[in-house]
Amino acid sequence: MSASVSIRDRYPLLIGGRHVETDRWDPVDDPFGGADLCAVAAATPDDVDAAVRVADAVGAEWARTPPTERAIAIERYGRVLDEHAGELAELMHREMGKPLPEANAEVARALEVVHYFAAEAERVLISQLPGTSITTGSLMRPAPVGVVASITPWNFPVALILWKLGPALAAGCSFVAKPASEAPLAAWRVCELAIEAGLPDGLVNCLTGDGPLVGEALATHPKVAKVAFTGSRRVAEQIATWAGPRLKALSLELGGHGPLVVLPDADLDQVAEVALIQGYANAGQACYSVNRVIAPPNLTGEIIERIDEGRQKLELGPMATDRGVQRHMRLIEDATLKGATVRGGEAVDSRRLEPALVSDAEVGVELIDEEPFTPIVAVMTNDDIEGAIAEANRPDYGLVGYVCGGDLRRTLQVAERIECGTVVVNGWRVVTAYAPYAGWKGSGVGVELGRPGLEAFIRWQHLRVLA
Ligand code: NDP
Questions:
Q1: I want to staple 157 with a disulfide (CB 3.0 to 4.6 A). Which of 45, 82, 183, 361 is the partner?
Q2: Which residue, by CA, sits nearest to atom 13 of ligand 1?
Q3: pLDDT at 136
Q4: Atom of ligand 1 nearest to the CA of 215
Q5: Cβ(42) to ligand 1 under 6 A?
Q6: Ligand 1 nearest atom to the CA of residue 321, by list position
Q7: What parts of the chain have a pLDDT lower than 70?
Q8: How far is 421 from 26, CA to CA, in rounded Å?
Q9: What CA–CA distance (Å, rounded) separates 204 from 80?
Q10: Which of 140, 165, 5 is nearest to 70 (CA)?
Q11: Whose CA is nearest to atom 40 of ligand 1?
């Protein structure tokens, strides 16, 4: 650990541009061990109400601000975030253990998203559809949905809030953030920097505290128009039961079970690179992970060898939570008991794990059927392409898939049959600000990033002009 950022003793709520103290404070655990890092304010339903009401009032003004002015203000905010990129990465490193190079990369990519949506904000324009004369016809007005409640997890604490905040501000919405209790600090600072960057007080608010308590108060609040959530399916279903009957807009970005389909003419160096980077990034605590490498029988041995060689050279950061470590151990035990071959996967210390490579695991082994969310890559064999595609699409997930193949035409034909919102062809980089990121099937509802990710914060108004 080489971080030098200073951690404050206490992080209050951010409501209406002010720091708000609370009666109760929650400790933030140090993933590197030792004493708690600090304490964050524990919001109550009254705090939620206060934050939403101020967001609603300020949001009405922001919605009326011309798009070009909104764009300038968001770009200014983006530049302030740029100036604090190192600080945000260090906070993230300290609070959830992500190695600094990975934390820096997350922040850099996340800030690209803010600049992208600052530019998009200028293009939130009214358009005119043809009428019989210049004074008649239809105006299509993109109005903001209203107050957005954002609920985000700990694994990408900066990226996942900014994927929501950037487009929400660009569309003209106001924002109430609820970051994860395990890693609230970098997300909190993202919100505080909105105030320091001169965005209107109350446009961006931050409530730390108990997930179910704050989550229910947000998802049931009459003035919240949209809940934008990233996290587990279990919590997504709960949020949907609150927000659904109240007819709120919802986006739910959930987990994945990433297949990497290897075609017979694939470059095996590339296959190993994709599996190693995307299988073990963030110690496997990533929704876009490669979980299953699905390969033809004659290539399986060579692929296992190459991944295993790379795997042994990797040193992972600590798991963000004890329950992640326990889950990993349980998954490895289940696979072993069911006859799979497991390479690595041991505990290095109480929070650090060796990356695991699993082979000979079939359907029915938990890590083959359920998202591991720990550093495990499984290599599976399939006799033909149709079988490989069927296996790729088998689990009820559809976030990110990968295909490696030599003949690009054939590779793309396979890629478009993978039932995932994102399919990466011959490489490992998944996310870019200008392209939509969506979970299909059990991986979610709605979309983030790209132009569709902006329109997700817009409600259309048709002004039918019959002069
Ligand atoms: P959780 O779903 O447990 O938590 C996510 C957020 O929801 C946290 O802010 C949490 O607050 C809050 N929360 C918890 N319980 C409730 C509740 N009952 N009502 C409302 N909010 C609640 O997920 P994890 O933190 O465990 O994150 C891991 C999961 O997220 C994995 O399944 C992973 O795949 C998925 N994920 C998906 C991504 C995507 O883009 N599709 C990206 C990253 C992760 P608190 O921390 O206070 O409990």
A1: 183
A2: 211
A3: 87
A4: 20
A5: no
A6: 26
A7: 1-3
A8: 36
A9: 15
A10: 165
A11: 253
Q: CA 300 → CA 98, 197, 280, 303, 381, distances in Å?
A: 31, 53, 19, 5, 7
What pLDDT is recorded for position 1?
45
Determine whether 253 is an active site residue: yes
The verdict on the CB of residue 16 being under 6 Å from ligand 1 is no
Look at residue 2 in the predicted model and tell me its pLDDT.
46
Q: How many domains does the chain have?
A: 2
152 lines ligand 1 (CB under 6 A): yes
DSSP per-residue string spanning 65-131: S-HHHHHHHHHHHHHHHHHTHHHHHHHHHHHH---HHHHHHHHHHHHHHHHHHHHHHTT---EEE--
- Please say whether the beta carbons of 268 and 353 come within 8 A: no
C-alpha pair distances (Å), 68 with each of 123, 169, 170, 204, 311: 8, 12, 10, 19, 49
Tell me how far apart the alpha carbons of residues 164 and 174 are, in angstroms, rounded to a whole number. 11
**Which one of the listed residues 173, 287, 404, 420 is annotated catalytic?**
287
Asked, for residue 189, whether it belongs to a domain, the answer is yes
CA pair distance 22, 44, nearest whole angstrom? 9
Q: pLDDT tens digits for 197-212?
A: 999 999 999 999 999 9
Per annotation, catalytic residue among 253, 371, 391, 448 = 253
* Strand boundaries in 179-231, DSSP class E: 204-206, 224-230
Helix, strand or coil, per DSSP, at residue 254: coil
Say whether both 407 and 453 belong to one domain.
no
User: What spacing in Å lies between the alpha carbon of 333 and ligand 1's midpoint?
Assistant: 25
Is the pTM above the cut of 0.90? yes
Same domain assignment for residues 360 and 446: no
151 is a domain residue: yes
49 and 190 share a domain?
A: yes
Chain segment 84-138, per-residue pLDDT in tens: 999 999 999 999 999 999 999 999 999 999 999 999 999 999 998 888 888 888 9
Q: How many residues does the chain have?
A: 467
Pocket test residue of 29, 98, 163, 230 for ligand 1, highest count of atoms within 8 A of CB: 230
Domain region containing 292: 258-432
Q: Which of 151, 206, 374, 440 to mutate to test the pocket of ligand 1 (most atoms within 8 A of CB)?
A: 151
Separation of 381 CA from ligand 1 center, angstroms? 32
Pocket flag, ligand 1, residue 373 (CB < 6 Å): yes
Q: Is there a single domain that holds both residue 79 and residue 143?
A: yes
Q: What is the pLDDT of residues 239-294, one digit of tens each?
A: 999 999 999 999 999 999 999 999 999 999 999 999 999 999 999 999 999 999 99
- DSSP annotation of 181 reads S
